[in-house]
Amino acid sequence: xxxxxxxxxxxxxxxxxxxxxxxxxxxxxxxxxxxxxxxxxxxxxxxxxxxxxxxxxxxxxxxxxxxxxxxxxxxxxxxxxxxxxxxxxxxxxxxxxxxxxxxxxxxxxxxxxxxxxxxxxxxxxxxxxxxxxxxxxxxxxxxxxxxxxxxxxxxxxxxxxxxxxxxxxxxxxxxxxxxxxxxxxxxxxxxxxxxxxxxxxxxxxxxxxxxxxxxxxxxxxxxxxxxxxxxxxxxxxxxxxxxxxxxxxxxxxxxxxxxxxxxxxxxxxxxxxxxxxxxxxxxxxxxxxxxxxxxxxxxxxxxxxxxxxxxxxxxxxxxxxxxxxxxxxxxxxxxxxxxxxxxxxxxxxxxxxxxxxxxxxxxxxxxxxxxxxxxxxxxxxxxxxxxxxxxxxxxxxxxxxxxxxxxxxxxxxxxxxxxxxxxxxxxxxxxxxxxxxxxxxx
Length: 442
Ligand code: MEV
Prior knowledge:
The protein is of the alpha+beta class.
């Protein structure tokens, strides 16, 4: 059956939207409707709050909210909230936290907090005139005419840091940018930056018209293409690291500390030169990063886009983490660009985000950057530790066991039986299914 195009879907109420979906895409059993409504929150206000985060909302989508405790970061203990559906990520983070707990824990520092944005425009006129007008007049005017927008941010110690004219004409004909950098303090700052940039664009257009230096043709050639922040924030950077004596790298697999250190560094070096491996290596890091970013109501798409551009900043996609062994000391670290906020967005709206931030002791944006970087480093440590010793499947499948059993609709008793059964065996999908059928046929 052909599905129909629907007009004015957004104008339907929630029940009407669901009815239409069930009619068009469901089956007569009404199972779709049952599931969609099952996920509504019983508390009407809470349900309404979630529906208003986005558009055309018909239900809620649950994700597990887990905790990785015992992270020692700069001498302070943290329990890190993580929102992620993939089994074994939270367990891996907790295992890394425990490993580093008696070795001095994680050390972090902020390298910078500046973010940037651009007014992208076309100008078909005299370059030198544009340059001197910009530096002698327009820059000050841009600062002055955004004074109202930046007032609150300035009172919190942030605001616009620099405004520059960038000549891009060698890469694209007649293309220039107004490039500005910002300190947005505890907010991620997207709205603040975009408001400043749109105001810059207005000032640029108005002021060029009023100026006598430029000919009519030059004035009319100016076209603002767009004004938008950049999600690439290489100067909003945090560093996290762990280090210990090689002899302290003891692993339950029985591998010697020396071999562990050597294989581990080798694994990082492979990800530094081989993009196929670097992608998976960094994906593992993002398991940790994204889950804290989501738990704290931050924009994981922005973080993802930025991190991967950063990983390819040399022209080749590389590992985000690095490792060195010097004078018997093993050091493992990450530099991560992270534009995060603890005010604005969902941070004061989503009740679970507020709980997550409370668990993290209501951090500043800088503190949160450090915690998130630690989660990424810890995740990578756990993944490499497994990969160079037992292999990833042993631990991963153990955590995945419950998913397989849930798919088989195992009872609580059967689940317990299989958790015991697989205590000393490697879990595989095939083995779980065959043992499950054996048990049921007994
Ligand atoms: C799985 O989600 C992540 C890993 O593949 C990361 C890695 O290979 O480093 C285990």
